[in-house]
Structures are given as structure tokens and as C-alpha cells.
Specification:
binds magnesium ion, about 500 residues, binds uridine-diphosphate-N-acetylglucosamine, UDP N-Acetylglucosamine Acyltransferase, domain 1, 9-stranded parallel beta sheet, Spore Coat Polysaccharide Biosynthesis Protein SpsA, Chain A, 11-stranded parallel beta sheet, 11 helices, 2 domains, about 20% helix
């Protein structure tokens, strides 16, 4: 994998750690305002109709729960818990890189209030605030959480939560406030009367609680509602002062409960990502036809043509032109590279190289500067030096090529003997003729020439010509003799 790209994912995996590490031991005792975080991630997500826990569904390069974690990036956190239950082992494994995340089991999923009840033994005597996020709300901005915490502290509320006015509030809990944003009541959609459903101010599922007060109320929650669950929203109804912070961009509040909402969240995210890159100097000739993961890095003056899809830890450097019709995943694309109708995965392409049309680079291919990889060429786990060409119809696997190598049309490295893979080495300035087969393990020295149609099974020294094919036989006047024989046969 591209080194820079690998670094990027490591950084992403450390989001939680970075938070935690910023809080030194002395600071912990000196600061009087402690913040613990709970990310609710135990639910099955029945409406997704999936064997994968809902919070692990992927959205633009990160899982839903990783998005929730990344929204914490501006906040100083003292403890961070993920409440897990359905598919808990899978959730834990997926979040392995977040070393400071603690997992708390909710064996039976009896509602969001029940999920937070699981923290009672862990936060005994804790005197700070508990920030609760639903693991299925991926589009929250870090600045919004900062604002929530600020308001909570300033107003000294018992609970402060995020709300938004949605054009279509169906499915969300409705929040009823007085004129000063003080909460009177929260009612779940399915428990609302027809009149209450007209209120389009919704609960985002993001709350800041004074823990000492919440801890007293949690054991008293009842499940006398339509779903017979213990609702965290009921706790809000018992706490005062309770205040709502309205968020201007209601998209941030978008919760993902089914596949349609997942697709809508993806669209919102894509718009955000493309807007960001266009402001940073990237050209999209047809933005709607492209998809870009949030983990991708683009330099100014890159051009993304229609139907270009960039995934994972991809970096595209200045002056590169990707597409039309290309997929680039976990790869580092150098300056002024072009990638036309091609697939590049887990690979590095250095400056000013041309890829495609119809090329496939995969499995740690590394292509040097000023190279050309052309039509119907597949390159796997192979390093190609600078100014080398693999222009047509080739397969190169488990090979190293020097500089200025010319791989003739149809050259194949036969790298697999049915059991193991073997290496091919090709020195600087070597040329292979069309339709050569290089049977690995084999080494061609520098400035070697391989005759067209050769099957090379032995090493070739520098500056040699290697021809390994049957000699041509020519039989003069063969056609005439054939005619005479036929006439005789016919009498
Ligand atoms: C919840 C809120 C609703 C709000 C909406 C915002 C409640 C009762 N309702 O509804 O007011 O408008 O979020 O998106 O809180 N979970 C657990 N354990 C459980 C149940 C759920 O950890 O026993 C987790 C889920 O994995 C999910 C989150 O809590 O990440 C929210 O649960 P979900 O069932 O999606 O609640 P909503 O119906 O969306
Ligand atoms: Mg939900």
C-alpha cells in the first residue's frame, strides 16, 4: 500500500487516542469540568435488514460509528465508552485501532435509556458531564458538538441537547420547547398524537447530561411506551433546566435507520466532500457522476473527469487527471499522471506517467516516472522503473523492471507454477518482443533483447539476444506440389 496512504489511515484510527492523549494526568486533576462520552452502538438496526450491525455500515470510507467518533475531534474527553451489544465482537474488532475507546456490553437491547444505564457501575462517583451520541448519526460536525458543550456549561443546564427543524421529521422524536429553548417535553414519533406530529423540531440523539443527576434518574425509567423500551428521552423529561440547541444545517442531524437513509446520508456527504475539494482548487468536470471517500486527499489543480471514483486512503497529486471512467483505491497518484478508463488499487504511480485506457494495477504495483501502461495491461505486485513502457496486452506479476524497459505487446510473466508464485527480474534498457512468455523464476540482465514469441525459461546475461522458439521452416513451391497430388488422386 502507498506509504502516505497507509499513514493517513493510521491517523484516522488514532482519532480517539489523540483526544485522550491530549489530557495529561495533571490536567485531569486540575480541570474541574470532566467530560465522558457514550456512543450508543448496541442496537441491531432491524430496519437495515442486514446481518452486519448497523453502526458498521460504511459511509464514504468510514463506518457510521467511526463518523460519530470523528465528530468528537474538537473536544477534550476524559473517558470514551462505546455501548455494544448486537454483533458486539464485530464492532469491537472494527474499532481495534481506537485504543482509548472502552467497550461496555449491553447484553439485551432494551432501549437507549437501558443502554446508558449500563454505564452506572463505570461512572460511579463521576462528577462531570456525559455526552451521549447515537452511533447512527454520522454527519455531525465537530464544531456543533463544541457549541453544545459550551451552551451546556454556560447555562449550567442539567441537560442540553441538539435539535433541528426538519422538512420531513417522520420517525424522529419531537422536541417541544418554550420561547427560550427550554424543553417542555420530548415524545417519540410513534408515541406522538397527530397534532404532535405536526411539530418538525426533532431530537438529534445527541445530548450533554450532568451525570450526577442522570445517574439518579436512569434506574427509574419505565418502558410504558409503544416499543416497550427504556427511552433515554424520558430521562430528559425529568431533568431541569433542560435546553435545546438548534442546529442550522439540519443535514447534520440525519440519523441512519434504513438503506434509503444510508443512501441519502451518502449524497449529503458527497456534496460536502466535493464542495470542500472544489474550494481547495480541484476541478470536477461532472461532479454528480463522481464519488470521493472522505479519506481521500487531493492536491490543487487535479482534474477529475466524469465517472471517477476515489476510495480509501488515496492521494492524488497536483496536475493529475483521473478519468473518465476510473476507480482508484488506496493508491498514491503522482503529479501530472493521467489515469484513463482504468482501475488502480493499492498501488503507487509516480509523476508524469500515463495509465490506460483499460489498465488494471493492483496489489502493490509501483510504476516509476514518465512511464506508459497501456491498453489491457494488468500489473500486480510489480515495480516498474522510470521511463519504461508496458503499452499493450500484458500481464506482469511478482516482477521488478528497471528503467527504460520496453515490454512488447502480449508479454506475460508466468509467475505461478500451480503451487507458488515466483519472481521475474528485468534489467535497465531491456526489450521483450511481442508475445514473449517469461517463465519465473527468471532474470533478464540489462539491455537484453528477447525475440518475439519466445518462451524464456533460463536467465539471460546483459546485452544478449535471447530467442526461444521453433525455427521457421519454409518449403518452396509447396502449393504446386499439393495441386499435382490432388489431381492424381482424382484420377
Ligand atoms: C432515537 C431517539 C429519537 C431521535 C433519534 C435520532 C430514543 C428513544 N429515541 O430514535 O428521539 O430522534 O434517535 O436519530 O432515544 N441503541 C443501543 N441500545 C439499545 C437501542 C439502541 O445502543 O437498546 C443504539 C443504536 O445502536 C443506535 C442508537 O442507540 O445507534 C439509536 O437507536 P435507534 O433505535 O436508531 O433510535 P431511533 O429510533 O433512531
Ligand atoms: Mg436511529
Amino acid at each position: 500500500m502507498a506509504r502516505r496512504a497507509a499513514k493517513a489511515i493510521a491517523a484516522c484510527g488514532r482519532v480517539g487516542t489523540v483526544q485522550r492523549d491530549r489530557v495529561g494526568a495533571t490536567e485531569l486533576t486540575a480541570r474541574n469540568h470532566m467530560v465522558a462520552v457514550a456512543i450508543l452502538a448496541a442496537g441491531r438496526g432491524t430496519r437495515m435488514k442486514s446481518s452486519l450491525p448497523k453502526v458498521l455500515h460504511s459511509l464514504g470510507g468510514r463506518s457510521l460509528i467511526e463518523w460519530a467518533i470523528s465528530s468528537l475531534s474538537h473536544i477534550q474527553i476524559d473517558r470514551c465508552y462505546a455501548i455494544v451489544g448486537y454483533g458486539g465482537d464485530r464492532v469491537k474488532a472494527a474499532l481495534d485501532g481506537y485504543s482509548d475507546l472502552e467497550f461496555v456490553e449491553q447484553a439485551e437491547q432494551l432501549g437507549t435509556g437501558h443502554a446508558v444505564q449500563q454505564l452506572l457501575p463505570h461512572l460511579e462517583g463521576f462528577s462531570g458531564d456525559l455526552l451521549v451520541l447515537n452511533g447512527d448519526v454520522p454527519l455531525l460536525r465537530p464544531q456543533t458538538l463544541e457549541r453544545l458543550l459550551e451552551t451546556h456549561k454556560q447555562k449550567q443546564n442539567a441537560v442540553t441537547l441538539l435539535t433541528a427543524q426538519l422538512p420531513d421529521p417522520g420517525g424522529y422524536g419531537r422536541v417541544f420547547c418554550d420561547g427560550r429553548n427550554c424543553i417542555k417535553q420530548i415524545v417519540e414519533h410513534r408515541d406522538c398524537t397527530t397534532a404532535q406530529k405536526q411539530n418538525n423540531r426533532i431530537n438529534a440523539g445527541v445530548y450533554c447530561f450532568r451525570w450526577s443527576e442522570l445517574a439518579k434518574i436512569l434506574p427509574k425509567l419505565k418502558s410504558n411506551n409503544d416499543q416497550q423500551e427504556y427511552y433515554l428521552t424520558d430521562a430528559v423529561n425529568y431533568m431541569r433546566p433542560a435546553m435545546a440547541v438548534d442546529v442550522d444545517d439540519y443535514h447534520e442531524m440525519f440519523g441512519v435507520n434504513d438503506r434509503k437513509q444510508l443512501a441519502i446520508a451518502y449524497q449529503i456527504l458527497q456534496d460536502r466532500i466535493k464542495d470542500r475539494w472544489m474550494s481547495a482548487g480541484v476541478t470536477f468536470t461532472d461532479p454528480d457522476s463522481c464519488t470521493i471517500d472522505d479519506t481521500v486527499q487531493l492536491e490543487p489543480d487535479t482534474i477529475l473527469e466524469p465517472q471517477t471514483h476515489l476510495r480509501g486512503n488515496t492521494v492524488v497529486r497536483s496536475g493529475a487527471r483521473i478519468g473518465p471512467g476510473s476507480l482508484v483505491e488506496n493508491s498514491d497518484i503522482g503529479e501530472n499522471v493521467t489515469v484513463l478508463y482504468s482501475v488502480v488499487a493499492d498501488s503507487i504511480v509516480k509523476n508524469s506517467t500515463r495509465i490506460g485506457p483499460y489498465a488494471h494495477l493492483r496489489g502493490e504495483a509501483q510504476i516509476g516516472e514518465h512511464c506508459r501502461v497501456g491498453n489491457f495491461v494488468e500489473i500486480k505486485k510489480t515495480t516498474v522503473g522510470d521511463r519504461s513502457n508496458v503499452a499493450h496486452l500484458s500481464y506482469l506479476g511478482d516482477a521488478t523492471l528497471g528503467d527504460r524497459v520496453n515490454v512488447g505487446a502480449g508479454t506475460i510473466t508466468a509467475n505461478y507454477d500451480g503451487v507458488r508464485k515466483h519472481q521475474t527480474h528485468i534489467g535497465n534498457g531491456t526489450k521483450t518482443g511481442s508475445n514473449s512468455v517469461l517463465v519465473a523464476p527468471v532474470t533478464l540482465g540489462e539491455n537484453v533483447t528477447v525475440g518475439a514469441g519466445s518462451v524464456i525459461t533460463k536467465d539471460v546475461q546483459d546485452n544478449a539476444l535471447a530467442v526461444a522458439r521453433a525455427r521457421q521452416t519454409v518449403k518452396p513451391d509447396w502449393k504446386m506440389k499439393e495441386e499435382v497430388r490432388r489431381m492424381k488422386d482424382e484420377g
